[in-house]
């Protein structure tokens, strides 16, 4: 198998964990369109997994296995039969982690441990998907951005379990020679994102005639990247990344939440002040910002979706056209938020 500076010379078998989730399903579609590789998705189908996100894939290149990444026996057999693992599966929502942290420890820490143990036993190439939240947050007026050298300083149960999983992967590289790379990406948006997350929650609220809900003042800044750009970056790292290295992924998309809500309202023909302020998130990180110079200069990656407003407009159209995809989760999600005053 070719890696560490060269493109894959042949068709490889890739195990994608969490492939029924938002970014994992996007990556599977990207692999189908851009490569000839075959893919197995391993996904537990928690509330966040949705098989409808994987409909229409070619049966000769794609298989689905329902299961838990913390199931050592299942994972060992699957890893043994693949050339590479791309590990997306996680409990991913900060608000949920504040209500009930336990599943975050089970999946993000024990699940990752289970996968890297199998990958080291079988000498399998491993790419670990992580988040910029492991670095904590930046002040609003700080010109700095996160780099690969920024110290870890996570704030929430979610981000601390992701930080823990990154450190496990790093230790397995150093102690056991695990053939791994890590990427830490900023906030994704695009099709197939669960309605619990900020952008789809507000879009689907407006589509249902409800007002968007802004936590606190709305000054918090996120660095938005289209999920397709995340996928192309991950494939680039899988093919050409140096083993043992971490790469930050971002597309220079800093916006505060107020700006994003106003953009959604503008693009849907609503008055820009037609939103509600709701209870803030405890410990709410102020600002994330990514410096992706290493990925761009070392591996030659560039994002394609540079225009955030155009990507947002396309995302609004997707939710408008796919109500059957998101409607089943909407009522339960809003009931949970309402109980939290959000
Ligand atoms: P998601 O919640 O939409 O999807 C997670 C998927 O993992 C679901 O399909 C779920 O069923 C599956 N899963 C959960 N627990 C599992 C288990 N124990 N075994 C097998 N499958 C399990 O999440 P997402 O937003 O697509 O995030 C995917 C990854 O990307 C996560 O590792 C997350 O930390 C990372 N990430 C997300 C963002 C973002 O903006 N969403 C940004 C950077 C990094
Ligand atoms: O930075 C990468 C991270 O981005 C990923 O690691 C996480 O998996 C992903 O969920 C996301 O985390 P955030 O907490 O930044 O995303 P969320 O969509 O939950 O919230 C984005 C911002 O919007 C945040 O400042 C909180 C705010 N917010 C969120 C919701 C759901 C609101 O103002 N109103 C809302 O209704």
What is the gist of this entry?
The protein is α/β, with parallel strands linked by helices.
Features:
342 residues, alpha/beta, Rossmann fold, seven-stranded parallel sheet, two-stranded parallel ribbon, 11 helices, disordered N terminus, binds nicotinamide-adenine-dinucleotide, binds 2'deoxy-thymidine-5'-diphospho-alpha-D-glucose
Describe the fold and architecture:
By secondary structure, the chain is an alpha/beta fold. The chain has a domain at 13-189 and 226-249: NAD(P)-binding Rossmann-like Domain (Rossmann fold). It is 42% helix and 15% strand. It has helices at residues 22-34, 72-80, 94-99, 102-122, 157-176, 198-207, 227-240, 257-267, 293-299, 308-321, 323-339; strands spanning 13-17, 38-43, 62-66, 84-87, 125-131, 180-185, 188-189, 213-215, 221-223, 225-226, 246-249, 254-256, 276-278. A 7-stranded parallel β-sheet has the order 3-2-1-4-5-6-11, with helices on both faces. β1, α1 and β2 form a beta-alpha-beta unit. Residues 1-6 have low confidence and may be disordered. Bound molecules: nicotinamide-adenine-dinucleotide and 2'deoxy-thymidine-5'-diphospho-alpha-D-glucose. Residues 92-94, 131-133, 186-187, 197-198, 201, 213-215, 220, 222, 257, 281, 288 line the site of 2'deoxy-thymidine-5'-diphospho-alpha-D-glucose (DAU).
Topology (elements, then pairings):
Layout: E1 13-17, H1 22-34, E2 38-43, E3 62-66, H2 72-80, E4 84-87, H3 94-99, H4 102-122, E5 125-131, H5 157-176, E6 180-185, E7 188-189, H6 198-207, E8 213-215, E9 221-223, E10 225-226, H7 227-240, E11 246-249, E12 254-256, H8 257-267, E13 276-278, H9 293-299, H10 308-321, H11 323-339
Parallel strand pairs: 1-2, 1-4, 2-3, 4-5, 5-6, 6-11, 7-10, 8-13
Antiparallel strand pairs: 9-12
Helix pairs in contact: 1-7, 2-4, 4-5, 6-8
The structure holds nicotinamide-adenine-dinucleotide and 2'deoxy-thymidine-5'-diphospho-alpha-D-glucose.
């Amino acid at each position: 198998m070719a890696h560490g500076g060269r493109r894959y010379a042949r068709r490889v078998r890739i195990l994608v964990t969490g492939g029924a989730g938002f970014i994992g399903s996007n990556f599977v579609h990207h692999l189908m369109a851009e490569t000839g590789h075959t893919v197995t998705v391993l996904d537990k189908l928690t509330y966040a997994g949705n098989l409808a996100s994987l409909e229409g894939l070619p049966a000769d290149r794609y298989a689905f296995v329902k299961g838990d990444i913390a199931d050592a026996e299942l994972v060992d057999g699957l890893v043994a039969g693949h050339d590479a693992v791309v590990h997306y599966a996680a409990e991913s929502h900060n608000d949920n982690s504040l209500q009930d942290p336990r599943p975050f420890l089970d999946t993000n820490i024990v699940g990752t441990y289970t996968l890297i143990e199998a990958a080291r036993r079988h000498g399998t190439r491993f790419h670990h998907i992580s988040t910029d939240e492991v670095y904590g947050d930046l002040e609003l007026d700080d010109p700095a951005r996160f780099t690969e050298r920024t110290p870890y300083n996570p704030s929430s149960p979610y981000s601390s379990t992701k930080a823990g999983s990154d450190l496990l992967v790093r230790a397995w590289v150093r102690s056991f020679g695990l053939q791994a790379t890590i990427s830490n990406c900023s906030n994704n948006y695009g099709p197939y994102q669960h309605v619990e997350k900020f952008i789809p929650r507000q879009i689907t609220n407006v589509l249902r005639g409800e007002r968007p809900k802004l936590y606190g003042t709305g000054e918090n800044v996120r660095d938005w990247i289209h999920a397709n750009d995340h996928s192309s970056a991950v494939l680039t790292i899988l093919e050409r990344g140096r083993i043992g290295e971490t790469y930050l992924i971002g597309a220079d998309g800093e916006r505060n939440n107020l700006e994003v809500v106003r953009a959604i309202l503008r693009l849907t023909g609503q008055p820009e002040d037609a939103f509600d302020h709701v209870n803030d998130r405890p410990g709410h990180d102020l600002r994330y910002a990514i410096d992706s110079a290493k990925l761009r200069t070392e591996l030659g990656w560039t994002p394609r979706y540079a225009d955030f407003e155009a990507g947002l407009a396309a995302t609004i159209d997707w939710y408008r056209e796919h109500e059957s995809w998101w409607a089943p989760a909407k009522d339960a999600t809003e009931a949970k938020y309402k109980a939290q005053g959000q």
